[in-house]
Design brief:
By secondary structure, the protein is mostly helical. The protein has one domain. The longest helix is centred in the first third of the chain and has 28 residues. The protein is globular.
Amino acid sequence: MSTDRRPDDTAPLTLFPSAASMSSGGSVSSVSSVAARGLPHRPAALGTIALIAASTGLTGRLVGWAAWSVADDKNAPWILGRASGVCAYLLLVALVVMGLLLSHPWRTRWRRPSPVVRIRLHVSLAMFTLAFLVLHIVVLATDEYAKVGWWGALLPMASQYRPVPVTLGVIATYGGILAGVTALAAGRWAWRLWWPVHKVAVLSLILAWLHGVFTGVDTPALGWLYGLTAALVLALAASRYVTRTPADLAADHAEVHPVDGAEWRSVA
């Protein structure tokens, strides 16, 4: 069986070898394997580059504005630590939401974005969450005003400042790292091995929520944010389990998406 794709409108590319070529010892060329994966579309690539450039410019402008705003404030490290913590929390919420969407029974009704794009977005959110989490920890651990220190940032009940809520954040961090490690095993280990452990990400979100609510002095001002994000995750999680049927569960176990050389499953 063969199909023609004409990226340059002139040369057809054979995705699969013919019976004659296989019998004569022929093999699929590297060009054919690239075609099988899908050739990049130039307008789409240009659009992606433009989006990255715009995002980079906007990020630089926002970072510059934030640095200028707290330049003369002696509490600037604490402000940066708190801001990075809130960003890490919001990214964690988005990460968990995307994970719920990846395994939601209704996911087959959503044609865009594709399952592969959703998985890559999930991975990207994990990386951004880790980046802001590291910034949050480093800033507060090195800020004498915060009274957290390295021991408090890494060990339970070692912080001088609100040790119990800070400990919740420490445990949430280690739980998130564990969930990330199991995600690396996706497609390489059997899903029965890595998937149950990966679900600890939900526990990490709960602990991070409690950490943010009971650690920050600005919780009264951010109460609406914590309430809204909690309601969103609870509603999505409830719909995921309430609407699931035995047929959905069977489909979950059979659904496999090849991503970057590994096979990912959307499982319940």
